[in-house]
Amino acid sequence: MRKHLIAFCMLVMAVSLWAQSTGVLDYKRNSLATILVFHPEDEFGPNIHEAYIALPTPDKYDDHNLQWRIIDNSQVSGVQKNKSGLFKAEYGHPLPASEISQNAQYIENLLNDAQVGKALVAKWFNLSGTDSLATFNTELLAERGQYNASDIDVALAMQTVRGVSALSDAGEELIGQTFVLVNDITYVTAEQEAQAAKTSMAVIGGIFDAFFGGNSGRQLAQGVGAIADSFTGFNVKTHSYLYQLVWNDSIAAVFSKYHATMTPNPEKIAAFLADQTTYRVRYVAHEYEYDKKSTLKGKYERSELVKTICARSVDKNIVALGKQYEDFKVKTPVYGILEGKNGTIAGYTAKIGLKEGITESTKFQVVQRLYNPETKRTTYRYIATVQPVKGKIWDNRYNAVLEQGEGSDLNFTTLKKTAGGEILPGMLLIEGRYRKVQ
Questions:
Q1: What sign results for the dihedral spanned by CA atoms 51, 52, 58, 59?
Q2: For all residues of the chain together, what is the average pLDDT?
Q3: Contact indicator for 355, 330 with CB cutoff of 8 Å
Q4: Fewest C-beta atoms under 10 Å: which of 46, 240, 247, 274?
Q5: Which of 96-100, 181-185, 222-226 shows the lowest mean pLDDT across its residues?
Q6: Beta 428-431 vs 364-372: how paired, if at all?
Q7: Global pTM value
Q8: Is 110 helix (H, G, I), strand (E, B) or coil?
Q9: Which residues, 6 or more positions from 401, have their beta carbon under 8 angstroms from its beta carbon?
Q10: DSSP states along 346-382
Q11: 285 falls in which pLDDT band (50, 70, 90)?
Q12: Are 217 and 71 in contact (CB under 8 A)?
């Protein structure tokens, strides 16, 4: 039995080393740029601004942030009649669908007027240098997509069909999976909640007095109001608007023929910079998150409290957007295999947790990524189904370790197989069902 266990461990180690050496663990992730709607008119607006800029890009996405990270709400015009700014929910009154739709369309127009789509493409192809000496290269494309950069460079430089084909494949797998997430973060202060509590209890207190006489109702209202006043902190309300870079064979062909240049070519660079219509983003989904329980009491200084609450609120919206819009789903590799007794498999591990919205009932497809060298396309084959083990879900939320909550001392989430075949390290986990899985 000992020999079998040793053989099993060696096999697991060999598979893991093979997966890492062959790049299987270097899976293709979606790329994400994030932008904040900044409300300078709000007392805590600067705190949210400061906190947001300091937050890292969610680690399940490749960082595709641009220099432009902020939309100044005080400079927004044309959305509301006789009033500047986007539609903004007041405390206790969520935005109706019509106002969400108007905000989403305005932001899309704003992003396209600012040529954000072109900036995303320029970052993908590392546009660098002065106007007369500027060039593109495919180093980032190769790094994120495991392509051979020199091969794509040559194909593009020669303007061949293969060049367009290479970009088409990259577009489906990488460039077209580029997203812009615009987060409109406002907040509810303790004072607003306290005032609402006072008002509510004052009404109840009046009813008590009317029925029973005396001032017992007023005393009750004052007592609750005092408790509400003693609370410090605030809750954030996050409206997230998701946009996707439009990329297809036609756009790849335009870039390859008229704009891409690996050597200085002022005409092509000028044509790229002057193009106002080819590279655009489109609105795809909206999500709203407001959780009174997200408020943290007495554990952080103001700046860290704001950063923590903002990060968790945005993370919740990202999870919800992935469930709502399939192309935005997180893919993450199987991290490892846990050994059981007598050489059996006790479970599987993954570097995901509460930050990604994982619960005991969450189900994942385990898929194998297959690349066809003839068609230059990637497909996904179903292998198995897994779900988290109770009590073994990693709390990987921002600053979770400081709160010492359940699961914050773990380094991964443990999963159990509920159906399917053999699972190996490096295979991908995708929550729910994914239309591209065969």
A1: negative
A2: 80
A3: no
A4: 274
A5: 222-226
A6: antiparallel
A7: 0.82
A8: helix
A9: 408, 409
A10: EEEEES--GGGT--TT--EEEEEEEEETTTTEEEEEE
A11: very high
A12: no
